[in-house]
Write a structure and sequence with these properties.
Elements lengths: L9 E4 L8 H6 L4 E5 L5 E7 L3 E7 L5 H16 L8 E5 L5 H18 L3 E4 L1 H6 L11 E7 L4 E9 L4 E11 H8 L6 E4 L4 H11 L3 E3 L12 H4 L20 H9 L1 H11 L1
Parallel strand pairs: 2-5, 5-6, 7-10, 10-11
Antiparallel strand pairs: 1-4, 2-3, 3-4, 7-8, 8-9
Helix pairs in contact: 2-3, 5-6
Length: about 270
């Protein structure tokens, strides 16, 4: 885990030992840029030189459009890598903030197309599971989640397989009540990774009892330095058509659809 410094910008140069192997080290001899703006945290990293990572992570910021490019320039400078030396770009694809996702994905796609380098994507939920794979038991279930407002969350169920987060229940947008009811069918323990209010924590304990283990709050902060490992077997994306994984419509679109529901139904009947 990468420790944060009281919410301030952090920079780190170290190989996360549980995410390095000889195959990855050879791949990392060519520098790769990783970007995450999918939620409140902004994280960018350069993975280079046999797994060495230069990472900059800014928790709890909503200024991704202003801070992303300067952060990229800073990690490039610190790692002594030029933009033209990059061999690939990896971006967090969601779920998460609609606006945040578009910022990171747009920059990643632009760089991939301009520099003519591969583009890969990783799940934003898988990214926070990566924070705990070294400390939870082999085979353990991990439940990452992000708040999606109105008592809903973005979530999925992962299982740790050789210290790698493997998705076993598809990611979805779901209510807390429905998700906890589904999780009750799984064996203990269930490791929860995310930021919980006191009321949400009480609800989780009420529904799941002693099955639950809560990760540290800092484990809910994604670190782009892990993306090279997470994307190791991911397919290359087509930068011309790649879009984020939103899992739900933006609130403005939902409101528009709700206010035009009668009109849509009328048009459908007329077409029939």
């Amino acid at each position: 885990m990468i420790e944060e410094d009281k919410g301030a910008k952090s920079s780190m140069i170290c190989p996360p030992s549980h995410f390095l192997n000889k195959k990855l080290e050879r791949k990392c001899s060519m520098p790769v840029l990783a970007i995450d703006t999918s939620n409140k945290t902004l994280s960018v990293a350069i993975v280079k030189d046999e797994g060495t990572i230069v990472e900059q992570t800014v928790p709890d910021t909503l200024q991704h459009s202003v801070k992303l490019m300067p952060a990229i320039q800073e990690v490039l400078q610190e790692s002594q890598v030029s933009m033209q030396e990059l061999s690939g770009v990896i971006v967090a694809k969601g779920p998460g903030s609609y606006t945040g996702l578009r910022i990171g994905v747009t920059v990643a796609k632009t760089l991939a197309k301009t520099l003519q380098i591969p583009l890969k994507a990783v799940s934003s939920l898988q990214a926070i599971v990566a924070n705990v794979v070294e400390v939870v038991p082999e085979g353990a279930y991990v439940v990452p989640f992000f708040d999606a407002r109105r008592d809903n969350i973005f979530t999925g169920l992962y299982q740790v397989n050789h210290q790698f987060p493997q998705l076993i229940v598809p990611e979805r947008h779901i209510s807390w009540v429905d998700w906890l009811q589904e999780l009750a069918t799984y064996e203990a323990p269930l490791y929860f990774v995310g930021q919980l209010t006191d009321a949400q924590k009480e609800l989780v304990v009420e529904k799941l009892g002693d099955k639950v283990v809560f990760a540290k709050e800092s484990d809910a902060i994604a670190h782009a330095g892990f993306f090279a490992k997470l994307a190791q077997n991911a397919p290359e994306e087509d930068a011309d058509v790649f879009v984020p994984t939103y899992l739900k419509l933006a609130e403005a679109e939902e409101n528009w659809k709700a206010s035009h529901q009668e009109e849509q139904e009328t048009n459908y009947v007329e077409r029939m």
